[in-house]
Every structure is written in C-alpha cells, then in structure tokens.
Amino acid sequence: MYLSAVTQFQDKLIEIVDVERILSEISPLEEKLEDVIINAAKTIKDISKFTVMLVDDSLLILKHEKKALDKIGVKTILCQNGRIALEKLLELVKKGPLEEQVQLLVSDVEMPQMDGYTLCSKIRAHEKLKDLYVIIHTSMSGGFNFGMVKKIGANDFVPKFDANEFTYVVLHSLKKVAQGIRGSDAEFNVSSVEELKESHHKDDMD
Questions:
Q1: Which end of the chain has fewer CB atoms < 10 Å from its terminal CB, N or C?
Q2: Around Cβ 66, how many Cβ atoms within 10 Å?
Q3: Are residues 77 and 10 in the same domain?
Q4: Contact (Cβ atoms closer than 8 angstroms) between residue 90 and residue 98
Q5: What is the pLDDT of residue 206?
Q6: Does residue 115 contact residue 149 with C-beta atoms inside 8 Å?
C-alpha cells in the first residue's frame, strides 16, 4: 500500500516507501485556508487568469497543492518530475509566449529523471523560458539548500507542506508577476505568511 518503487543495489532489491503518504495518514495535512490568505487573493486582479505549473513526484503533494490553489481560483498544470515539466514548457512555447500560458512554476527538489535544481537551471538557461517565476517547494531545509536555491536562479522558497504558507508564497510571487517583474530579474526572496499577518495587524492598529 505504501510502496512507491523498487530498485536494485548490489544484487539486492530495495523497496522504497512513500514517506509523505505515511506521514499524511499519521498527521493529516491541513488544507483550510485562513481568511487573511483568502482576502489577499482577492487583491490580485483577474486571479483566475493565472496558471501555475506544479512539479512533484508525490501525487499526494500535487493533490494538496492543487486543492489549495483551487480555493483561490488559480488554474494549475500538474507534472510528476522535472523532465515532464520541461517537456511541457517547451511544448507551450511552440504555441506562443510562455507568459501568456504559465505565469509561475512551483517545483520539488528530489525527483526521478530530473530534479528541481536541474529543472530551474535549464529554465534560466533557455531564452524562451528564462523569465518564468520559480518557487522551490521542498521538505529539505538549511543553509545549504537556501544557497542552492539562490544559485540556480529560483525566486522563492517554501517548505512542505502548510497550505497557508504555500498559498501565500504563490500569491506573493503572482503579485510580482502581475507588476511585470520577470523571474530572471527578480532577486531571491524567502516569503512568509507571517509577513502578511503582521502587515494586516499593523493596518488594524493604524
């Protein structure tokens, strides 16, 4: 039930379990969005016109990401690894400017066939993809990971998986996209839903 893959190492078969699925059943992921997030989404004009590409080898995580963005009216494209995502992006640019079809990409790091670091690097190196806004979404953390995220040209980072934190970082990036800021030009930024709560608290005090 929890087996996700089987691989071979030194003539031995190794079963790989779906850790994220196990953890979700032990401690179910919270999907309810706070009012402050819903209200923030309403400040973005024509938010339903935005499309976000979600890249993760876990179907469970993709499901939760999609549900969160469905609640704020954002369309999604789901891809299960970096290679599939890159191929999809290259198909889209053949049809027309990418910014008219996908405005943001959110990618996991550790995936088969092509990881998130490689995907982001290839996006930044491609003339017709380089302006895409990219968020790295991973359970990995620490200074090394932040350094790598910045080095590959990603624009933001969000840890797995808190629906409110995830949705806020997506909204934060979409606002920048709406302002005409390109992913290739934007500086690396680590957003937090606490910033939004603090700003609303300050407005209430004023």
A1: C
A2: 17
A3: no
A4: no
A5: 40
A6: no
A 10 A CB-CB count for 4 gives 14
Q: Name the residue range of residue 82's domain.
A: 31-205
Q: What local confidence, expressed as pLDDT, does residue 39 receive?
A: 92
Residues 44 and 55 placed together within one structural domain of the fold: yes
Mark the ranges of the chain whose per-residue pLDDT is less than 50. Answer: 26-28, 144, 196, 199-206
- From the centroid of its chain, how far is CA 100? 19
Strand ranges, E, within the chain: 3-9, 12-17, 51-55, 75-79, 104-107, 133-138, 156-159
Same domain, 79 and 60: yes
Bridge partners (DSSP) listed for residue 106: 54, 135
- The CATH number covering residue 158 comes to 3.40.50.2300
User: Could you tell me how far CA 162 lies from the centroid of its own chain?
Assistant: 12
pLDDT of residue 191: 67
Q: Which of 200, 193, 191 is nearest to 104 (CA)?
A: 191
pLDDT of residue 199: 46
Are 11 and 77 found together in one domain? no
What single string gives the DSSP state of each residue in 111-154? -SSS-HHHHHHHHHHSTTTTT-EEEEEES--SHHHHHHHHHTT-
Residues 4 and 174: their CA atoms lie apart, in Å, by 33
